[in-house]
Design a protein that fits this description.
Blueprint lengths: L1 E4 L2 E4 L13 H15 L3 E4 L2 H9 L33
Parallel strand pairs: 2-3
Antiparallel strand pairs: 1-2
């Protein structure tokens, strides 16, 4: 799920049916959103922790589209690895 906010394409939530998980479908959804952002000269804002993680794992995307990295709260970080978490450990 995404929403358009001016020149920003906010990736709010990545939903993949249970039966299709672990098959790369979520990554395909994020990649398609990136392509839409490139085509529309939009800024990608990954609010979804899956999209955030996927974009970090694919740094080449930043060469094609601007990414506005939001601060993700610990409650929304279930898909992030410890080294990907954007807040300091306590």
């Amino acid at each position: 799920m995404y929403r358009r906010e001016g020149q920003r394409l906010v990736l709010a939530h990545t939903v993949v049916p249970e039966a299709l998980r672990s098959q790369g479908q979520g990554g395909r959804l994020v990649a398609a959103a990136v392509e839409a952002a490139v085509a529309g000269s939009l800024i990608v804002v990954p609010e979804c922790s899956f999209a955030y993680s996927w974009l970090q794992e694919h740094p080449e995307v930043e060469g094609r589209v601007k990414i506005e990295w939001p601060v993700i709260s610990p409650e929304r970080s279930s898909n992030l690895l410890p080294e990907q978490q954007p807040w300091p450990e306590h």
